[in-house]
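User: I'm curious whether this sequence folds into something compact or stays loose and floppy. Could you predict its structure so I can see for myself?
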Amino acid sequence: MTFRVATRDDLPEIVRLLANDPIAANREQVGGAGVPEAYFTAFAAIERDPNNSVIVAELDGEIAGCLQLTYIPGLTYTGGERAQVEGVRVAAEQRGRGIGQLMVGWAIEQARTRGCRLVQLTTDRQRPESIRFYQKIGFRPSHMGMKYHLDASETSEPG
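Assistant: Here's the prediction. I'll summarize afterward.
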């Protein structure tokens, strides 16, 4: 297993991985005419940000998984930096082989080497297998996450 920073050429496979999930299948766009330009725009922004990267895990020359690793400076934890892990996916045909654990373990080591004070992630409550997985490798539910989804067609304020 090798880990590397993703390239633009990896994007179709990364988007396929992100969409290969019952929850994400409804929000990601794959197939048809190819990867929508919005993914390339987002990827370019990630590439320009020195605190942000998309990582792929390769096994036998094939992408077996991916994740996004973002470093967030903060005032809490005495000005400590934290690492945010997002978009963790393992290819369906590779699941059950410990790849997810290796990927998240790699991300934790990157954060430790950088001097981060903590590593955080979120997972949807509708993913009980993911919750069990993260708890098994040492993550603990400590906060209640909340999201406010913004819809481009929305014109009124929340209330």
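Summary: The chain is about 30% helix and 25% strand. The chain has one domain: 2-136.
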